[in-house]
Write a structure and sequence with these properties.
alpha/beta; seven-stranded mixed sheet; two-stranded antiparallel sheet
Length: about 210
């Protein structure tokens, strides 16, 4: 990969789709795949698929296609999910519980290694076999855990304060489910997920 070339975020998003597709094909014992097969499976144009891969080098063989295992492992390395990534979860409510129980996390090399909350009625109890820790201990605990990624499922009013604590604890990548803008420095990346926003957009497209 040419380090002077900036890879568009949209291309990275599509890489995650390719990886998921390749995971499914590996389970079906398929050995090779063409760009047309990728288009059929994902709906992403074959030319776009080849362009996305070209940011990172040359792949596949003309007339043969792509070896699924090799392409899967390469994309996993590009996305840095070729080895297990520790993640901490902030917020042990209904959404946090659902995410903690989601099998797709470990299947894609993400492991929640710490669950934190500020509710004294939850602290010390277990959620999906994970003990819930006091949010005030996060800095000390993450010094041992070494997680760089956090999932945030807290009320709007406490989101910014929690994010500030996360950053002080060594977190630099945050998946934010709180429906509120988060203010961070340029070296911190936040991805916002808002169910209501997505549902509202879908609602707009309802037929009269």
């Amino acid at each position: 990969m040419n380090k002077n070339i900036k890879v568009p975020m949209a291309a990275l998003v599509r890489l995650t789709t390719y990886l998921r597709c390749l995971n499914e094909m590996k389970q079906s014992n398929v050995q090779t795949i063409s760009s047309s097969d990728i288009e059929d499976a994902t709906g992403i144009n074959a030319a776009q698929f080849r362009k996305d891969l070209s940011y990172f080098g040359e792949f596949g063989k003309p007339g043969v296609g792509y070896n699924i295992d090799e392409l899967h492992d390469t994309i996993a390395r590009i996305l840095k999910v070729d080895e297990e990534r520790p993640v901490i979860l902030i917020g042990a409510g209904n959404l946090g519980s659902a995410l903690l129980g989601y099998s797709g996390l470990p299947e894609n090399n993400f492991r929640i290694v710490g669950v934190f909350d500020n509710d004294r009625h939850k602290i010390g109890y277990k959620l999906w076999d994970n003990e819930i820790y006091d949010i005030s201990t996060i800095k000390a605990r993450n010094a041992k855990i070494g997680a760089k990624i956090a999932i945030l499922t807290v009320p709007v009013k406490s989101a910014q304060d929690v994010v500030d604590d996360l950053i002080e604890s060594g977190i630099s990548l945050i998946l934010n489910f709180a429906p509120v803008p988060i203010h961070v420095s340029k070296d911190i990346m936040v991805r916002n997920v808002c169910f209501i926003q997505e549902l509202t957009i879908l609602s707009y497209h309802l037929k009269s």
